[in-house]
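Lecture 7, part B: from sequences to assemblies.

Below are the input chains for today's worked example.
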Amino acid sequence: MDFLSSIGETVSSIGDKIIEILPRSPISFIDSNPKIKEYISFMNWFIPVDTMIAMTEAWLTAIFIYYVVQVILRWAKIVE
Amino acid sequence: MLKKVIAVLAALLIVSRIVLMGVSAAMVGAGVMVGIVAILAAALVASGQYTEAQVDGMSRNEIVWSVKNGIDNGTIDPKKKFPNPDKNTVGDFATISIVDALFNSDRFADWNGKNVIDNAIDETLADWINNNVLAEEIVNPVLKGDVDMRGYGALVKFEIHRDYGVQSYTYYYFVEYALLQFNDIGFVFSGSDVHQISYPGWGDAVESDISSVSQGTFPYSCYNKIADPISIDGRCVTFYGDVRFEDGTKVDTADEYEYPLGETEDGTKVTVDMLNPDATVTVDGVTEKPSDYINIEYYTDPAVIDLLQQILNALDNANVAAPDDTKDIVDDIAGDVSLDIASELTDYVVPKGIATVFPFCLPWDFVRGMKLMFEKPKVPEFKFELDFGSICGFEIGKKEIVISFEDWEPLAVICRWLFLIMFSYTLILLTGKIVKGAGA
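Predicted structure of the full complex, as structure tokens:
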């Protein structure tokens, strides 16, 4: 039991070291910058990117459902 | 190739949604935790157990643990700083809900051995008579208990029938969340707004304001016309999002009101939703620490006292784990406390650990990137400051130039619709190709 917990601790410390070496996410830096959000809001005033993204999400969901249904129907040999 | 790309995007979207649901739950908990920590830090300083410098150096977990430890070992008494309404000590501040007391007066029956509202009303009437506000003897004052929600808490109306020989009425309105201060001579209404409308029984109603309704002085004077509640002075009507009666019914409150924690040096009001994850606040690019702007004096206010009592009660009852077990603390507190924390705080909370490093951060970054694009559209406005110096001997100096696209709103509407129509047309064309290809 002690052996297993020591292995677990070793793996965990190796994981922590790997996380320290890997580069940080750049998006969190962009996300916390209020100026960038301000300019995005200006852009959204002309080009409704937020609406377009919402429409894309709905469209992708519909396509995904279509594919899933198609796979099920093909598996059931209802369609070829 | 296009079909494969579309399929991958669709799968990524579905997975991201599932991940987001799980992350959002943790982030809301963490967001609540962030908002709580700023307030707990101020409470620690206010308790006198820690200096501001000591609290600034504490991690989030240490602050929570310090408050919990302090309560457990008796060195921090939240009830002393934020007294329970049932406590009755001369010199302490106590807060009650007037509406609550009026409709449930038996709850306060043993407060100082008397019914507190009856006592307050009697003293108020006596004072009005002494100050010639009421010239006639009061006959049968009647507390009607009508409650008029005007979006700023509760207004309680009570009638006093004065005998002029004809039937006449006087209405007095009290705003919810009055602060009652005990002193040597009795009760003092402070911070409440009172308005008087007299109906003399003939002619039109006479409307007037009352400047003082009890012994002692009003620390804040607020004169309000009932017909225009927007003009209510915020210092008089103090509440926050979750104002409730005893039976749990929520009182309608104005959503636009934001309770200020304090203000920066240039007078900018700082509100709870402006707090950063580390409990600092950034105004116009300048980051300040809590000690610079949170005014401890505000914590005598009943609305914040109520909020802090909820938090501290939740800490008392929560199963707080060891200091290095942050997740359990967040889960316990987030499960026991329901607070209205501004949603903007959740955007600032970054998950710890593997989710912050590349390439494991990709799902969270994808979600964050999408949410970044969902900013509310704002009219573009650019400000420049130009120094013109002096021209022909006339000193002009620095002038601010503002370029605003507000007048181009009709064009922007046309642009938005055109882009949406073109985008929809593109999606329609793509759908045809994908469906045809998949059906083959």
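Note for the exam: DSSP finds twelve helices and 16 strands in chain B. Keep this in mind when comparing with the next example.
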